Amino acid sequence: MSxxxxxxxxxxxxxxLASKRIAPYGTxxxxxxxDIGKLVLCVAACLAxxxxxxxxxxxxxxxxYATLEKPAFNPPNWVFAPVWTLLYILMGVAAFLVWRRGWExxxxxxxxxxxLVQLILNASWSVVFFxxxxxxxxxxxxxxxxxAILFTTLSFYRISRVAGVLMLPYLLxxxxxxxxxxxxxxxxx
Length: 189
Prior knowledge:
Helices cover 85% and strands 0% of the residues.
């Protein structure tokens, strides 16, 4: 009999905890709708940053960029758009997973502000490198971007391991892009 009473108390206690977790959303269906909205917003914000950068990139590729000396490891131009699209989607999902943990959490706020800073630096790199046609200033921006991505990735990982791991391909690609940027600068100064 005491086992049954303990089980009933446990069930009552866990149902109270579960209702507290769901309470900010209302019903379970509301939670899913809000989550879908957050996910779409996060991915759209990342893709928008990419679209802003591509406005400067597209114009420079056939003109200024085509005239630059590039290292042997420079990928073909067609590689960049699909890679960046995938990275922006992964970044958006990572941001969503962190945001989902609750905006009222101080760590979440810090991580998402860091994410926003790196997203602005990401778009700025294209403006500086391609728009201003400056590999040197592009190198400075991408160095700051790399640090911001590292900070964001570590912050995300502390909140959601999956979110942190989803940021790793981005960090690796920007590491490669920084080496490429430096090589272009050295070959063309």
